[in-house]
Design brief:
Helix content is 98%, strand content 0%. It is mostly helical. It has one domain.
Length: 86
């Protein structure tokens, strides 16, 4: 009877140690995932900055084209007025 109690206690201790080992493994994997997540977040933020810069370049280029079109249209108005008065 005493041997059975000792065997049960040994089995419990073994099970507890195994569970603790699994918990340690899970914690390590979660820690690694957290590091990976931080790397991903940093990369996404960096890409966002680059995209914002590119977007601003396109916005400036579009503004420049609009100004050129407005200027061109303004230059052609006197010519169109002359044609209309004929």
């Amino acid at each position: 009877m005493e041997n059975m109690k000792k065997d049960i206690e040994k089995q419990k201790a073994k099970s507890v140690n195994e569970i603790l080992r699994h918990i340690d493994e899970i914690c390590e994997k979660l820690f690694q995932l957290d590091l990976v997540q931080k790397d991903i977040v940093s990369w996404v933020k960096e890409q966002k900055k680059h995209l914002e810069v590119e977007l601003r370049k396109y916005e400036l280029a579009l503004d420049e084209i609009r100004l050129e079109v407005d200027f061109s249209m303004a230059q052609s108005l006197p010519e169109k007025r002359r044609e209309a008065s004929r």
